[in-house]
Specification:
Blueprint: H1 3-12, E1 16-20, E2 23-27, H2 34-42, H3 44-68, H4 75-87, H5 91-100
Antiparallel strand pairs: 1-2
Helix pairs in contact: 1-3, 3-4, 3-5, 4-5
Length: about 100
Amino acid sequence: MDAATTLRTLSEAGFTVVLDSARIVVTPATRLDDNLRAAIRAHRDELATLLASVEREASELIERLRRADPGRWTSADVDEARRTACRDYPAGINCLRALTGSKK
């Protein structure tokens, strides 16, 4: 299992995975089994890089959407869209790409 597969597996299982500084935080941690913990440990650096990349791209795409329709996007909307892009990987970031016409 690589980093993208690990993140997708966690997202599909209902876990929230965020990068807090350089630390990967998975909630609810009490539901993690030994296999998922091992996958996270094995791909820690790649997961951190992937999460940072998704957060960065989400921020850029959200900013494009916000500029196109500034009255629609509150700061709470922006924060939730950024969290969703990571939490629902890869569907969240793909949705933002579709909304902006971006391809990656």
